[in-house]
Amino acid sequence: MRASDFLTEQPVTTTNAQGVTTTVNKAANRVTQQSGAGTVVKDRTGNMRSITTPRVGGLQLKQTFRPDATPGYGQANYKSGGIELDAKGSPETGYTQTAKTSVGGVNMQAKQRYSGQKEFGTSATLANNKKISATSTISKPGAKPVTKMSISEFEDVQAAIREHVAKRVPFTECMFRPGSTAFTEFYRQVRECADKLNLDWEDQELIATDIGECIMVEGEIVALDVPMIEEEELDEAEYQGRKVKLNSPKRGGSKKFYVYVMNKKTGRVKKISWGDTTGLSVKAKNRGAVKSFVARHKCKQANDKMTARYWSCRTPRYKALGVKGGQWW
Description:
- There is one protein chain.
- By secondary structure, this protein is α+β, with helices and mostly antiparallel strands.
- The chain contains five helices and 20 strands.
- The protein has a 13-stranded antiparallel beta sheet. Strands 18-19-20 form a three-stranded antiparallel beta sheet. Strands 14-15 form a two-stranded antiparallel sheet.
- Strand 9 (94-103) and strand 10 form a beta hairpin.
- The radius of gyration is 24 Å and the shape is globular.
- Mean pLDDT is 77; it is low at 1-8 and 228-234.
């Protein structure tokens, strides 16, 4: 199923004489009842999913339940005067605590996850309707903070996400130019609302990467996990006396595919070949085969462009190779 298949049947909302509003969402298997006593969510067979109290004095409580043996979670949320405090979790898992505030159009947030990870973030909306944000993460006590930055074109990006959902376009086919601020913000926002979307496995794998995030490297903002190399960014170089295009994989050569890459340390160009030569096809659409391939080759850790492993793991990214389906590492 694609990202917006859940919209094929819209939720139905009714209100009775006692003022209780009931929303039946068949696609999500959810029945929600709202009244002055709070909000109750059940599945369509009547099993309790969550209970939320009204907000009183800024405080609201929520308890969720799971249909299996996995513990649900409790949540306490307090809002007052531009300050929001939140604690979410369970005794079994521990609690994630969040504090937010907004001062003069600048939003700040501090979060400590149940795992011990700490995050500090700030964002602001600029006069040109763009949003700039920065997040610093400390993965564990004593670790160095990692700072990520992004600049969003807020309205355009939200409109694009709505368009993807309305027209059932998979999120792997982003309409923005790879490397642009809109491209980065598009995936950052999709990740934020991913739990509300029925993402297919390709979309899920893409959102599981760091796509949409940026880091500061030597004073420059660098986007992470941009899934393709822009044609205009490809440079030519000389290999064995002739001009070749760098970082542009092609079919053929001694194996199924090949690419020319420049070693930045030596300045020399290397031809890298990869792919089966016995007639086997690339099973990029076979989820089981892809999962096995990723595990065997440790694709998520393959970051050296000078190796065949790097390019083999990224084969489906390059449309010129004619490999359909696949996955974004």
